[in-house]
Design goal:
six-stranded antiparallel β-sheet; Transferrin-binding protein B C-lobe/N-lobe beta barrel domain-containing protein; eight-stranded antiparallel β-barrel; mainly beta; 1 helix; about 40% strand
């Protein structure tokens, strides 16, 4: 399933700090002994719901992760475990900047991670200038006679902002007829300060791994990400801190590539036109569905994502994101998130394609 993207932006300059421990957050080779707080509130303990720093009560379905989120702490979220679909199996995700390698546990035939051979930079090595791609070793030796054993097609995508405050990882497997096994993680490593009024626009990069239900193999996608927020735009129409914030997101200028890096966007567009009787010249834009109740006071965002072809929904799913930094003053903070959408693949019969993308945007 999902593979983790690693940022190309000056990998040698990545400030490595451990972003939590255990099987959930991403970790990076550290040059400091400090460990960011990825859960729980600081200061005096309070009864839930009785303090200004407590998370709001909400029926929104956030992914698993930090159990007691707060604006004053780091937050991580991961793909929920689903044994039938193979989701959420990627664990102990780690990027090591010193030798530009990637590690993940919990997957079959992946080079015996994390103690075996690391994922290495793949070819192509990146999506856009912002995110780096890694792949599992092709073989692993039999522990008795060293005969090579073929490994599955695993790919990882890892992204981290220039500040190091936000990052994400996606791991997917193309060796199964169904979606296979993988997972994703995104996180902020610090705190957040949110406005109570006004509007803000954020832009950056989007990168994705595409896998299939109905055939094996993987593809990549990339694009430009834009997120706009109207703070308190739905005032008076919902209850709870920040629930009135309106969030609008777009993935523009999307392109699709095979795992060798060849641009196959035009072939995919031609297949859509043949299937739908349309005359598209570019891929349909991925969008966030706008409405109240997608945001909370901890800076977490979650809602529906979709695109359309000829007025009909084509791919549908969800987005999950978290805001980081001070969004009330320059430079204006960052947002990291994951988008997961799926739909019928117009190039085949009874084949579903799933696109799992990560994005990092800033003011």
């Amino acid at each position: 399933m999902t593979r983790i993207l690693a940022i190309l932006i000056a990998l040698a300059m990545l400030s490595a700090c451990e972003s939590g421990s255990g099987s959930n957050p991403i970790t990076r080779g550290a040059d400091t002994d400090e460990e960011p707080d990825t859960g729980g509130g600081g200061g005096d303990e309070e009864t839930p719901g009785e303090g200004p720093g407590d998370p709001i009560d909400s029926d929104r379905e956030l992914p698993p992760g930090t159990e007691s989120p707060s604006p004053a702490t780091g937050i991580f979220r991961k793909e929920a475990l689903d044994v039938d679909e193979g989701n959420g199996f990627a664990r102990n995700i780690e990027y090591r900047a010193a030798d530009d390698t990637f590690f993940v546990d919990g997957l079959a035939f992946d080079g015996n991670q994390p103690e075996g051979e690391a994922f290495a930079r793949s070819t192509p090595g990146s999506l856009r200038p912002s995110f780096a791609l890694y792949e599992a070793p092709l073989t692993h030796p039999d522990f008795l006679d060293n005969d090579p054993i073929s490994q599955f097609e695993h790919r990882a995508l890892y992204g981290v902002s220039g500040s190091g405050d936000v990052e994400f990882a996606i791991v997917r497997t193309g060796a199964y007829i169904g979606y296979g096994f993988g997972g994703w993680v995104y996180q902020r490593n610090g705190t957040v300060t949110l406005p109570t009024e006004g509007q803000a626009s954020y832009s950056g990069d989007y990168g994705a791994i595409r896998d299939f239900d109905g055939r094996g193999g993987l593809e990549y996608a990339s694009g430009d990400m834009v997120v706009d927020i109207d703070f308190n735009g739905f005032r008076g129409n919902c209850s709870g801190e920040a629930c009135a914030n309106a969030v609008r997101g777009y993935v523009l200028n999307r392109s699709i590539f095979d795992t060798a890096g060849n641009d196959i966007t035009s072939d995919y567009i031609d297949a859509i036109n043949d299937d739908k009787g349309t005359t598209l010249t570019e891929l349909p834009v991925l969008r966030f569905r706008i409405g109240p109740g997608v945001a909370d006071e901890n800076g977490e965002l979650t809602g529906e994502a979709f695109n359309t072809v000829d007025g009909d929904e084509f791919m549908t799913g969800n987005y999950y994101a978290v805001m980081s930094g001070d969004h009330t003053a320059a430079p204006g903070g960052e947002i990291v998130g994951v988008i997961v959408v799926e739909g019928l693949d117009p190039r085949g019969t009874n084949i579903t394609v799933r696109e799992t993308g990560g994005f990092i945007v800033s003011r």
